[in-house]
Design goal:
The protein has helices at about 25-30, 50-70, 90-95, 110-125, 140-145, 205-220, 240-250, 265, 280-300, 315-320; strands at about 1-5, 5-25, 40, 80, 100-105, 130-135, 160-165, 165-175, 180-190, 230-235, 260, 280, 305-310, 310, 325-330, 330-335. It is α/β, with parallel strands linked by helices. The protein folds into two domains: about 1-175, Stage V sporulation protein AD (Peroxisomal Thiolase, Chain A, domain 1, 3-Layer(aba) Sandwich); about 185-335, Peroxisomal Thiolase, Chain A, domain 1, CATH 3.40.47.
Length: about 325
């Protein structure tokens, strides 16, 4: 199963049975609004705190996934999930009612890629028949944790991205069925890449080097080139990070300019919505994957894509201590069936 220096290719296919997405009203008003399963009109989701709201969004995503797939709690071996909050509290309180074993993961905004990768290993190896991978974020809970409370009304620089309020959940199985959307045929694990940048308001620049490293290593490990894929999709780089990624890969001999798509750019309308550089957060690529990307694979518009969520590995402590913002990116190769 090992491929090259950092990748795995699965000898037994891992199938994507279904996906479910739940987002906030701002995301629902964006260009991809019609693709999401549930759009919350209330950013609080009926809760009395931002953190509880994010947990409810996670819970609704799992509920919607089970409804669409027809599976029950007893059929799910594990949930692999994560968020941006301390000790993964959004996930803890979001999925605890389902009574399914939980493997909590943290990869910052790359968590959905990490979750899909680890879940695929479990399914392909025979350690699980059905696994759910999910990730979430909430604009207000993330601002409160990593930046400033909303009550401060601080100005955001144009390099800043808007944390997506949303959750995406995916059901992976070992068996193909009439409901199968696609299959995961390989992964490339990311490594920590640190260019020494310290601007937490410009996460696209902080994360782009990690995305370039993972994508180039995937090409080397699998012996492929950009034209072998319909789309190369990053998670959370925004317009600034996208330009840096394209330049970095060009320096390595890979031109992805005509193939690249960033979930953070696609989820908002930059002309009408005040999101500056685009979107970010665990829920950004997770919700776009389980809505728009899956739809394109189902419709035959795309046959093979690389899904590359990107994460900024920082915390309030590291930022306040003046440390840099390292990046990481995990790659999942997805093919229509």
């Amino acid at each position: 199963m090992q491929k090259g220096k950092a990748s795995l290719i699965f000898e037994k296919d891992v199938y994507i049975e279904h996906g479910a997405s739940v987002v906030g009203s701002k995301e629902g008003e964006g260009p991809l609004g019609k693709y999401f399963d549930v759009v919350e009109s209330d950013e609080m989701a009926g809760a009395d705190s931002w953190e509880k709201a994010e947990s409810r969004i996670q819970s609704k995503a799992v509920e919607k996934l089970m409804e669409k797939s027809g599976v029950t709690e007893t059929e799910i071996r594990y949930i692999l999930g994560g968020d941006l909050l301390g000790q993964l509290i959004a996930t803890t309180f979001g999925v605890k009612k389902y009574n399914i074993p939980l493997l909590g993961l943290y990869g910052a905004c790359s968590t959905m890629g990490e979750g899909l990768g680890v879940a695929s290993i479990l399914v392909s190896s025979g350690c699980a028949d059905k696994v759910i991978a999910l990730a979430s974020s909430h604009f207000a809970s993330a601002e409160k944790t990593f930046r400033f409370p909303l009550e401060y009304a601080n100005q955001r620089p144009f390099s800043a991205t808007w944390t997506v309020t949303g959750c995406g959940a995916v059901l992976l199985t070992k068996d193909k069925s009439e409901k199968t959307i696609a299959k995961i045929n390989g992964i490339t694990a990311g490594k920590i890449v640190d260019f020494g940048l310290k601007d937490a308001q410009n996460m696209g620049a902080c994360m782009a080097p990690a995305a370039a490293d993972t994508i180039s290593r995937h090409f080397e490990d699998f012996g492929t080139v950009p034209n072998d894929y319909d789309k190369i999709i990053t998670g959370d780089l925004g317009v600034i990070g996208q330009k840096i990624l394209i330049d970095l890969l060009s320096n390595k001999g890979y031109d992805i300019s005509s193939k690249h798509m960033d979930c953070g750019i696609e989820i908002y309308d930059s002309d009408k919505q005040d999101t500056h550089a685009g979107g970010s957060g665990c829920g950004c690529c997770a919700s776009v994957l389980t809505s728009f990307i899956f739809r394109q694979l189902q419709n035959g518009e795309w046959r093979k894509v690389l899904f590359v969520p990107t994460g900024a590995l920082m915390s309030p402590v590291s930022f306040n201590e003046g440390l840099s913002v390292p990046g990481i990116a995990h790659l999942v190769s997805i093919e229509a069936v």
